Amino acid sequence: MRTFEEAFRGARFAGLISSVALGLVLAGCGSKSASGDSGGAVAAATTVEGAIEKPNLKLGFIKLTDMAPLAIAKEKGFFAEEGLNVTLEPQANWKVLLDGVIGGQLDGAHMLAGQPLAATIGYGTKADLIAPLSLDLNGNAITVSNKVWAQISPSLPHEGGKPKHPISAAALKPVVASYRQQGKPFKMGMVFPVSTHNYELRYWLAAGGLKPGYYTPGDVGGTVDADVQLSVTPPPQMPATLEAGTIDGYCVGEPWNQAAVQKKIGVPVITDDEIWHDNPEKVLGLRKDFAEKYPATTAALLRAVIRAQQWLDADGGANRAEAVKILSQPNYVGADAKVIAASMTGQFTFAPGDTRPAPGFNVFFDKFAGYPFYSDAVWYLTQMRRWGQIAGDEPDQWYFDTAKSVYRPDLYLAAANKLVADGKIPKASVPATDGYRGPQGGFIDGVTYDGKHPNDYLGKFSIGLKKGQTVTAAGVSG
Question: Which residues pair with 130 in a beta bridge?
Answer without folding.
Answer: 286
